[in-house]
Description:
Blueprint: H1 3-11, H2 22-26, H3 37-43, H4 50-54, H5 67-71, H6 78-92, H7 97-109, E1 137-143, H8 146-150, H9 155-168, E2 172-174, H10 184-188, H11 192-207, E3 210-216, H12 219-228, E4 235-238, H13 239-248, E5 261-264, H14 278-285, E6 291-293, H15 323-333, E7 338-341, H16 344-356, E8 364-367, H17 368-375
Parallel strand pairs: 1-2, 1-3, 3-4, 5-6, 5-7, 7-8
Helix pairs in contact: 3-6, 9-17, 13-14, 15-16
Amino acid sequence: MNSEIQSFIEKHDLLGCIQCGRCTGGCPVTVRTNLNVRRFVYDSIDESMLDELAKLPEIWDCTTCNTCAVRCPKGLKPVEVLIGLRGILVESGVIQPTVRDALESVFQEGNPWDKPKATRMDWKDGLDAKIAEPGESVENLIFVCCTVAYDPKLQGIARNLIQILNKAGIDYGLIGEQETCCSSEVYNLGEAGLFEMMVEDNTELLNGYDAKRIVTVSPHCYSTFKNQYPQLKADVLHYTELCAGLLKDEKIVLTKELQSKIVFHDPCYLGKQNNVFDEPRFILSKIPGVSVLEFDRKRERSLCCEGGGGKMWVETESRKERLAETRVKNARELGADILAVACPFCVLTLDDALKAKGLEEEMKVADILEILGEVAG
Length: 377
C-alpha cells in the first residue's frame, strides 16, 4: 500500500469507523445536497479510490460545522476526511478559481479577500483605538479578523468592541497592520502547506506581544488559535466570553432599554466546536427590555448557516432552500425582531437569507456587539 495512502487511513482512523451512519444522519447540508459523509469515510479506506473521491463536487458541500464529529459514537472526526480529500485536489492544482484566488490572496496579502495589507486598519479611523507594540505588556490583545476588518457591513462590529472596551476602562491593544489571516478557512479549503506556514508566522507574531489573553472577534479565529496553534503563549478568548465577564464585574453598564424579542443563533465554531453556549445568552439576558427566545435547534443541535468550511468561496449547486433561509424563517415564526449572532460569517449568510425571504422589514440580523453598542453607556 502506498505510504501516503496508508498515512491518510491512519491519520483519520478510517478503520475505527463502525458505519453507523450518524454522521450523515446529522449532517445539516444533506437536506439540500448529495453529500453522504459516511460513504466518503467508507470509500476512503480503498486506497485506489482517493484520487477519484477528491474529484467529486460533494466534498465542497461540507461546511465543517462539526455535527458529524459531535454525533460520532467512536469519537472520530469525519469532517477531517473531507478536508483531507480537498487537500489531494489542492495539491493537484485543479481547484475552482475562487478557491485559488482566496488562497493566493492569503499568501500575498494576508487575507482571503484580495485586499491590501495597508488598509487592514482603516475601519478604526476616527476611533480612539490603542495599537499595541511588540513586547508591550497588554492584558487583552484584540484580533479583529479579515472579514470584519475589510467588509464595510461588518466593520461596525469591531468599532463597537473598541468603544465598549474604552468605556469599560479595559486594558487592550490592537495588532495593527501586521495582523494577518488566522487561516481557518485555508485549512478548511485543504491547503495544508499554506496553513502550516501561517501558523508559524502568526505564532511568532502573537507571541511577540506580552499579552495575558488574545481576544478574537470571529469564532473561526478563536477556534483555530485555541485548537490548532499549540505554541501560543497567551490564553484565547472569544469576545462574548470577555464581555460576559465584564458584565458580571459591572465594568460594562447597560443604560438603555431595547424592547425586542431576540433569538440567538449558535455559530458552529463557537458552539459545536468549542462549547461556548452560555456567555452569548447571558449577555442578551442582561439587556433591559429584551425577551430572549430559543430555536428548537439550538446549542449542540444548532442549524449551520453554511458560512464556514470555505463556503464563502465555493457555491453549492442546489436549488433547495439554503440553511440560512430556513434559519431566518424559523426565527420569524418564533416572533423574533432580532436574529442575534456572534460570528461575521453568520451575519453575512443570514442577512442575505433575510433579504432572499423578503423579511428585512420585519426582522434584522445583528451581531451581539452591534446590539451592545446600542445599549452600553
